[in-house]
Design brief:
Two copies of one chain form a homodimer.
Chain A: E1 6-10, H1 13-22, E2 31-35, E3 41-43, E4 46-48, H2 50-59, H3 77-84, H4 95-109, H5 114-124, E5 130-133, E6 140-145, E7 148-151, H6 152-158, E8 165-171, H7 182-187, E9 191-194, H8 199-207, H9 212-218, E10 223-226, E11 229-230, E12 233-234, H10 239-245, H11 252-259, E13 265-269, H12 276-280, E14 285-289, H13 296-311
Helix pairs in contact in A: 1-2, 1-13, 4-5
Chain lengths: 316, 316
């Protein structure tokens, strides 16, 4: 295969699995990942980037495979002591994981921007893939629920996605500038991949940053999205529940509709082949694959199939 | 025994052992500890107070008995990850210990002064004793050595006290104001105790703060110091080495001389009884005790003996 510049928009766990397959398929150096920061949070004065870290840990081979996030073989002793000090400890910070947040916060306070900090963390973990936060500015996914307006992590972790969602908005999106390299990586990419992430909570906050959606619309290179929904169910997380509560059909079709203004190819799961023609009627090419990633082999297979389908759209 | 207000000047491990005995002898509420902050450091943006923490952890029954500092049953996983990020990790931060520094830094950044923060940490750990940093301002014990000028922890931990000491000074001492309650606790005390700590590195930085030495001199209540040197050797740490390098005799006599302007009673170790008369010639009362604290029982016995000797100086 010729060398291709690949840019991927990514949320957390689902994206990380696909990307882990991707960097075993193509050289890491050729991949730029634009990551979500809408789920970032400050806890005890530490700046935490759960989605960026999930991707980083996964690609560095350090993620806890069982949970899909955090570090393998981590302990939670600092957290138990923070609890002894009377602090809220619903966000499960491992001891090793904490080092990332301590170092990140230290670098941010010293004046570096998040994109530079992320690049430094990745370099230290031996990654050659480029992970870019979509913006260096503050952008927060806010969930308006029947129990009030919650930050993403409050909704997701503290409240375990239980409150009914009324609305989602992205605090700070209007002022957020794309981080250096973000728009360039879209404009210069040979292939652009929307990872199998929650379109509302993970990809929307990326698209909400000035110029990102427009850059995708203007690109004349293939933009391909992998469905995060299989047979009306999300592989992980509250995607389906939120879609329903916001009045959308819980279906891969809804995902395709979210992206139709810039998408060329939609990777639909084979279990959803019945949706192929309706998605094609949106003007998209549809490629059918087994998108469920249970094993490292699944991740690699799916990455290869997606690249192949994108570069040879006539052979689905 | 009648209730007495006791104020103690304290360094780290040696002081903590004595104080642990003291609070098993008198009600915690009656004890105010003025702690050294000259060995404080900032690491990875975290504000660390090793001496204050050693005292706090010891009195809360949480200190690692074997090391004398840090927390019992702690792990060092965050530190190993910080090392993976390429950071210096000569200062041995445990995972549980880290919670203290994270929370302290968080409270300091939110605008609280160190004395308030310390009081909050103590309260959360269930302590009723009052631990006061001698100052809320920045004060740093600096060690001028043949290898350059080092902060206390660089000298003590990183360089393992190896470089020859030429001079010790207290950066910031001229501007440092005593923390709220420090001078009052000396003026209102019925007994003032100088704990068995390094006089140069642990007690001097306390005495260097504006008004502290003067308050001790003005007090008409007994001021008693317990020797940190037994038979020409420090129980722990580099006291003797530093004394020699700075041109002092490595002897309990030197310690007594340091404090003679405000001291009434010097607690000398029985192994040094030969020094009794020369120390008495400084105008001090000398009380002979077994000052070596190997067991919790030793700590309590010494605390009782010191209080008894101070209140009944005629019965040594």
């Amino acid at each position: 295969m010729e060398r291709l510049k690949i840019t991927a928009l990514a949320g957390g766990v689902g994206a990380a699995k696909f990307l882990r397959g991707l960097i075993k398929t193509v050289p890491q150096e050729d991949v730029t990942i634009i990551g979500n920061v809408g789920d970032d949070l400050e806890l005890y004065g530490l700046h935490i980037c759960p989605d960026l870290d999930t991707v980083m840990y996964s690609l560095a081979g350090m993620v806890c495979r069982k949970r899909g996030w955090g570090l393998e073989d981590d302990t939670f002793n600092c957290l138990s002591m923070l609890s002894r000090y009377g602090l809220e400890t619903w966000f499960k910070l491992g001891d090793k994981d904490l080092a990332t947040h301590v170092y990140r916060t230290y670098l941010l306070k010293s004046g570096l921007r998040l994109s530079r900090v992320t690049s430094e963390l990745c370099r230290r973990l031996g990654l050659r893939v480029k992970i870019l936060p979509v913006t260096d500015n503050r952008l927060r996914t806010m969930i308006v629920t029947e129990e009030g307006t919650l930050s993403f992590q409050e909704y997701f972790v503290k409240k375990m996605c239980e409150p009914k969602v009324l609305e989602v908005f992205f605090d700070g999106a209007d002022e957020a500038e794309p981080a250096p390299g973000v728009l360039e990586s879209i404009m210069n990419a040979d292939v652009i991949i929307i990872c199998p992430s929650n379109p509302i909570l993970s990809i929307q906050p990326i698209l909400a940053v000035k110029g990102v959606r427009e850059a995708l619309q203007r690109s004349d290179k293939p933009v391909v999205a992998i469905t995060p929904i299989i047979a009306g169910k999300a592989v992980k997380g509250p995607t389906v529940k939120i879609m329903r509560e916001l009045g959308y059909a819980a279906s891969a079709l809804t995902v395709a509709e979210f992206y139709r203004d810039f998408l060329e190819i939609f990777v639909l799961d084979i279990r959803d082949r019945g949706l192929k023609s309706v998605i094609e009627s949106l003007g998209l090419k549809v490629s059918l694959h087994d998108t469920l990633m249970r094993t490292p082999e699944d991740e690699i297979r799916l990455a290869k199939e997606v690249l192949n389908a994108t570069l040879n759209p006539s052979n689905p």
